[in-house]
């Protein structure tokens, strides 16, 4: 198994785990069972393209552990997807779910492709064939997919329909993050970004930062966009935004609604007339109260960490900060780090709510969804702060230790099947 997982992101996830396991003094046999993924699936996904050519894409699904319940995690469409990356994301999802006290293990999946180059028909064909290949491995009591980078509500609707067609009846609880009309939850689309915004405001109060907060968002996809919109609504000034097309900056503030409209028409922030273009690397180093990396892994490197000019680093993405950068940040107590397994947990929490609503065929109001989400996030933040202060830990290590400890305790209680 291990030779399949040679990937810098997976190595980073393992390094974090090993540090936390050492502090927890996990016995070696329990450590090994807690660390390594339970199941890795690789599938070939042949698709007939619009040109008539048949292209075979590589698809993956990793289930990290099932000790607390079914596995839960997103489906990613991106050129970088491989078994190692997916395994790292599944591992982080395990700790995230345990930290939030959700009855899930972590999972992640994806297909190595560029969704920007697929037509709608090609994307649907890819999704349906990928789902069909995973029929034996996913299920509403075993593994529940959700959207991630490069996927959305429509992809989840295709997945649900494919699975339901195979079952012979509608199975809305097989995926989360799907359209509300077919069993999705109110608030799910915005949940991760709004969770980031909620925690930023909590951290700003703890740090006694004055308003308005100046905010820079790196990544303007679903998470970054909704985090920016919610922070602007609550009084913050968005001074910088970047995405894969470029970066823009305006010290007086960017109209996020107009920027969102520009992106929907032009496909990215590049060329937005309401701000000045800036280098995509330099945007991370501009002065601000809050920096939100909300794109991909490993963007906050050792070099960048030493030059950051923010007071709060809110990790909207999974694994945006390398272990080397963490060591630099440990020497910079003026920066309050909201670690990824806390900061971006809003999506999986509301996915859990969606799953519960589907199982019960009883749906909640948006107010009920967000009241419950914010309560869970606040409780998790409080637990992390308490652990960090008690043991003199970074917030990341405190969060990891809580999540890993809960998973390890569940495995110990259940025992080892002969």
TrEMBL record:
<dbReference type="Pfam" id="PF02812">
    <property type="entry name" value="ELFV_dehydrog_N"/>
</dbReference>
<dbReference type="InterPro" id="IPR046346">
    <property type="entry name" value="Aminoacid_DH-like_N_sf"/>
</dbReference>
<feature type="binding site">
    <location>
        <position position="72"/>
    </location>
    <ligand>
        <name>substrate</name>
    </ligand>
</feature>
<feature type="binding site">
    <location>
        <position position="222"/>
    </location>
    <ligand>
        <name>NAD(+)</name>
    </ligand>
</feature>
<dbReference type="InterPro" id="IPR033922">
    <property type="entry name" value="NAD_bind_Glu_DH"/>
</dbReference>
<dbReference type="InterPro" id="IPR033524">
    <property type="entry name" value="Glu/Leu/Phe/Val_DH_AS"/>
</dbReference>
<feature type="active site" description="Proton donor">
    <location>
        <position position="108"/>
    </location>
</feature>
<keyword id="KW-0547">Nucleotide-binding</keyword>
<feature type="binding site">
    <location>
        <position position="192"/>
    </location>
    <ligand>
        <name>NAD(+)</name>
    </ligand>
</feature>
<feature type="site" description="Important for catalysis">
    <location>
        <position position="148"/>
    </location>
</feature>
<dbReference type="GO" id="GO:0004352">
    <property type="term" value="F:glutamate dehydrogenase (NAD+) activity"/>
</dbReference>
<dbReference type="InterPro" id="IPR014362">
    <property type="entry name" value="Glu_DH"/>
</dbReference>
<feature type="binding site">
    <location>
        <position position="96"/>
    </location>
    <ligand>
        <name>substrate</name>
    </ligand>
</feature>
<feature type="binding site">
    <location>
        <position position="351"/>
    </location>
    <ligand>
        <name>substrate</name>
    </ligand>
</feature>
<comment type="similarity">
    <text>Belongs to the Glu/Leu/Phe/Val dehydrogenases family.</text>
</comment>
<dbReference type="GO" id="GO:0006538">
    <property type="term" value="P:L-glutamate catabolic process"/>
</dbReference>
<dbReference type="InterPro" id="IPR006096">
    <property type="entry name" value="Glu/Leu/Phe/Val/Trp_DH_C"/>
</dbReference>
<dbReference type="GO" id="GO:0000166">
    <property type="term" value="F:nucleotide binding"/>
</dbReference>
<keyword id="KW-0520">NAD</keyword>
<dbReference type="InterPro" id="IPR006095">
    <property type="entry name" value="Glu/Leu/Phe/Val/Trp_DH"/>
</dbReference>
<dbReference type="InterPro" id="IPR036291">
    <property type="entry name" value="NAD(P)-bd_dom_sf"/>
</dbReference>
<keyword id="KW-0560">Oxidoreductase</keyword>
<dbReference type="InterPro" id="IPR006097">
    <property type="entry name" value="Glu/Leu/Phe/Val/Trp_DH_dimer"/>
</dbReference>
<protein>
    <recommendedName>
        <fullName>Glutamate dehydrogenase</fullName>
    </recommendedName>
</protein>
<feature type="domain" description="Glutamate/phenylalanine/leucine/valine/L-tryptophan dehydrogenase C-terminal">
    <location>
        <begin position="185"/>
        <end position="415"/>
    </location>
</feature>
<dbReference type="Pfam" id="PF00208">
    <property type="entry name" value="ELFV_dehydrog"/>
</dbReference>
